[in-house]
Write a structure and sequence with these properties.
The protein is an alpha/beta fold and about 190 residues long. The chain has nine helices and four strands; from the N terminus they run E-H-H-E-H-H-H-E-H-E-H-H-H. Strand 3, helix 6 and strand 4 form a beta-alpha-beta unit.
């Protein structure tokens, strides 16, 4: 059973530990992760603005790996919907347009105020905080979520990191309920 089909907003794809968690969860089959070229551009711009040590080429490689490992992830052909939509931040209309065109039921974002329920309801789309979304995944199949977090932890080799340190990072990134539950499960 699926948690749903979710557009991952750029704020979920950067910072890297959150992107890594969501990519690993997307490969479990718990939900179908979707995004657009525009969302890729947005998270990559944010990275480059704060991390001068990373190159555009390296981020492009990350984008390519994301697209290759999550089947059917790219949504295109939604652009004509953008001018028909109204959101508090007009720059977010492309995310809603992608969700509608891509038949997504959820937009995973930290920016809930930018996606009011009354605006999303006619399109059968809801905005979900990343912590709430992962909690739904945990309710659906805690074993798969725990495996994904363990894999994320095991992949951290340069430098290695204790599991508690990874959970601390995810907590600081707003995954408060998720981390609270994972600390008892892992």
């Amino acid at each position: 059973m699926l948690v749903g089909v979710a557009v991952l907003d750029a704020c979920v794809l950067y910072p890297a530990p959150l992107r890594d968690l969501f990519m690993r969860l997307a490969t479990t089959g718990l939900f179908h992760a979707r995004w657009t070229i525009e969302i890729h551009e947005e998270w990559m711009r944010s990275v480059l603005a704060t991390r001068q040590d990373l190159s555009r080429a390296r981020l492009e490689r990350t984008r390519e790996l994301m697209d290759a490992h999550v089947e059917g992830c790219l949504i295109s052909g939604f652009e004509s919907l953008i001018p028909t939509l109204s959101l508090p931040d007009p720059d977010d209309r492309h995310v809603l347009a992608a969700a509608i065109h891509g038949k997504c039921d959820t937009i995973v974002t930290f920016n809930l105020k930018d996606f009011p329920p009354e605006v999303l309801a006619p399109y059968a789309v809801v905005a979900s905080h990343p912590d709430d979304f992962v909690m739904r995944c945990l309710e659906m199949n805690s074993t798969l979520v725990c495996q994904a977090v363990r894999q994320q932890h095991q992949a951290l080799r340069s430098p290695p990191m204790e599991l508690d340190a990874l959970l601390d990072i995810l907590y600081e990134l707003g995954m408060i309920s998720t981390v609270g539950l994972l600390r008892h499960m892992l």
